[in-house]
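lol ok so funny story. i was supposed to be doing the assay writeup but got distracted and ended up predicting the structure for this chain instead. priorities right. anyway since i did it might as well share w the group, maybe its usefull for someone
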Amino acid sequence: MHVYDTITAALADLDSRGYNLDFNLTPEALECKEIDLILMPEEFEIEEIYRFEGMTDPADSSVVYAISSNVGNLKGVLVDGYGVYAENVSPELLNKLKIHHE
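and the output, tada:
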């Protein structure tokens, strides 16, 4: 497992290893606007996860997910704040992300 001091360092290393797409959360799936793609929870895997604690406020904490998918043989990243996604996503997507928070 890699250890990084900053989110920027994690993203740079992941990018150098082919995780070069940016994913965003939607209520039901992950979306990559760069290539106009939607991945449902069963269509991607979380390969690696990195947590970053806020320096002054724990609410500023973030998580970086390294995502891969057999759909198009893609790799990319999802950057999210702790708990931010919980209110607005489907139970299936929430389950997929929570497995890696425990």
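The CA atoms of residues 86 and 98 lie 9 Å apart. The chain is about 20% helix and 35% strand.
back to the writeup now i swear
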